[in-house]
Amino acid sequence: MHILLVEDDPMLAAVIENGLGERGNSVVAASTVAAGRLRAMEKNCDIIILDIGLPDGSGFDLCRDLRAAGLDTPILMLTARESVQDRVHGLEVGADDYLTKPFAFSELVARVAALGRRRPQLAPAIVKVADLNVNLRTRFISRAGRDITLTAKEFALLEFFAGHVGEVVTRAQITAHVWDDNHDPFTNVLEVLIRRLRRKIDDGFDLKLIHTLRGAGYRFGA
After folding, report:
1. What is residue 14's DSSP assignment?
2. Is 6 helix (H, G, I), strand (E, B) or coil?
3. Among 21, 124, 135, 176, which is most buried by a count of CB atoms within 10 Å?
4. Taking the CA of residue 134 as centre, how many other CA atoms within 13 Å lie in the half-sphere pointing to its CB?
């Protein structure tokens, strides 16, 4: 499963990220409400693990905002608060489950698995754009019958584009998906990565799929 972890404690975040990753999950971490909101609204995760106490706001408010925006991704809230009132409040603002710190990691794994079983599998495993085929589960990519091999970062970029076919996406949206919160947005690494991806999926084809919209961002599609 693709899991978004919004947790500002670096040690706990590392434990959760590594533990869930070892169990075959893909975990993306954010440490603030702002970063968590941006990544959650990309709508490409299966589960959100959300801490309540964040440096720039409350996980309660973030949960409420995501539900108000129509996001139906299952949310598991983490908190050090033990009162019944806090647990009820979390469920009232739209959380699906609640886990109080400290917790046994096995319980976290069980709760994440339970939420994953509830979520309908609506996202297609294979995205087709013109003659490009992208299998998001096996990471098999081909264009016009030619197999394409991508690095992890190149695939993360293509995965983001495949989830936003035909849409105009900004640099900030892309970098939030491909890199972590420590990425410097003023470097040219995004442009370098896009050039590398273009060479692999567009070079040699009359129909280009990655389009630069000056001053706006990028659009992926025929």
Report:
1. H
2. strand
3. 176
4. 23
Do you know the residue count of the chain? Answer: 222
Beta bridge partners of 165: 220
Q: Is 29 buried (19+), middle (13-18) or exposed (0-12) by CB count in 10 A?
A: buried
At residue 187, the 3 state secondary structure works out as coil
The reply to whether the predicted model has a pTM over 0.85 is: no
Q: Which two tokens stand for residue 61?
A: 């408010």
Strands (E), 15-125: 26-30, 47-51, 53-54, 57-58, 75-79, 97-100
Measured CA to CA, the distance from residue 53 to residue 9 in angstroms comes to: 10
Quick check: 133 and 126 in contact, CB under 8 A?
yes
CA distance 85 to 20: 29
Measured CA to CA, the distance from residue 190 to residue 93 in angstroms comes to 36
Pick the closest to residue 94 from 114, 50, 58, 64 (CA basis): 64
Distance CA 138, CA 33 (A): 31
Structure tokens at 134: 């992208």
Enter the tokens of residue 204: 């040699």
Query: What is the C-alpha to C-alpha distance for residues 45 and 33, in angstroms, rounded to an integer?
Result: 16
Q: How would you classify the pairing of strands 132-135 and 2-6?
A: unpaired
> Which tens digits make up the pLDDT trace of 3-62?
999 999 999 999 999 999 888 888 999 999 999 999 998 867 889 999 998 999 999 999
**Exposure string over 142-172, b if 16+ CB within 10 A, otherwise e:** ebeeeebebeeebbbbbbbbbbbeeeebeee
